[in-house]
């Protein structure tokens, strides 16, 4: 029966990691997968994470099962980190939280939940969106369609087109939004635009589904949660997928959470039973370690401060790199304007070059990025900025 299968192409983002590792050029630069790196190009373990792991090693007494919802303490703290301590959805007990294997686990469980509610649900995703959104949603047999989002020519959000397209959506359709640090384009909605979108979604009976994988890496932990908090307050039904991969640096520990907001506490209990049953039939229960680290940090004032301070250093470094990249490209005499890069947020921006130029950067200069020209800003450093700027400028000259 296996002969019915056809070989599939490798994942475009993850394959870049393999290609980069195999490249022997000492000047090689990895701007591919979205992983934070320090000035030395190293993805270090955050200090609060090491402290929490040390504490867990000394105090953990069991490895017994934790159940489909994961750890209660993690779910308590992660929902407050995301929504704030005083959020109405928490006070009204309208929210179900489950710890998941990373943000992908959260997205997929949310998608399976939607499919269980209504199998022919349509999910609107931004054009462009993170490449893995599509298979995660379609894997749950949902219909996926796009709303306009980023204009490659003006480097800005196509906000009017986004709104008019969403006006044409049907009540009960789901709208997937990036909570902050849009992946791949780095162009985020302003608070005014979030207000307009929230009003539109609620008025039309559209269900918000927010993927927030970079909280704290844009403008700040609270600032980055503006949209998700607003929608959780206004919308009667909502889904949220969050990830601890980037802001806690827990990539391989696969730590995330799915949150589902119901119109009232009674409906929330029904929601919870369905979500936990879906989880049980997929992976039964999430891995514990990453969430135990996050819970240890967020339940300790000192560790929370250490973590928040280190996250701020990462955020500010990314912003500084954005400015330096735009300046260094301009300093090469390049006539193309890259001043949009410091205006965008988080790890990613499109350079706005074509696939051939991306290929030349890879083949001639060993600079790796996704074919769409999405770069991971955090892959830059003072060691490679000039090289990247000059190489890009050379390629643009033709
Ligand atoms: C990325 O977009 O590079 C990250 O979110 C990693 C991934 O899994 O694709």
Automatic annotation (TrEMBL):
Keywords: Aminotransferase, Pyridoxal phosphate, Transferase
Cofactor: pyridoxal 5'-phosphate
Superkingdom to which the source organism belongs: Bacteria
Chain ranges of the Aminotransferase class I/classII large domain: 28-392
Keyword Plastid recorded: no
GO MF term list: identical protein binding; L-aspartate:2-oxoglutarate aminotransferase activity; L-tyrosine-2-oxoglutarate transaminase activity; pyridoxal phosphate binding
Annotated InterPro entries: Aminotransferase_I/II_large, Asp_trans, PyrdxlP-dep_Trfase, PyrdxlP-dep_Trfase_major, PyrdxlP-dep_Trfase_small
GO cellular component, one term: cytosol
Transmembrane intervals: none
Pfam families per the UniProt record, alphabetical: Aminotran_1_2
A biological process term (GO) from this entry: L-phenylalanine biosynthetic process from chorismate via phenylpyruvate
Family membership: Belongs to the class-I pyridoxal-phosphate-dependent aminotransferase family.
Oligomer status and interactors: Homodimer.
Protein name as it appears in the record: Aspartate aminotransferase
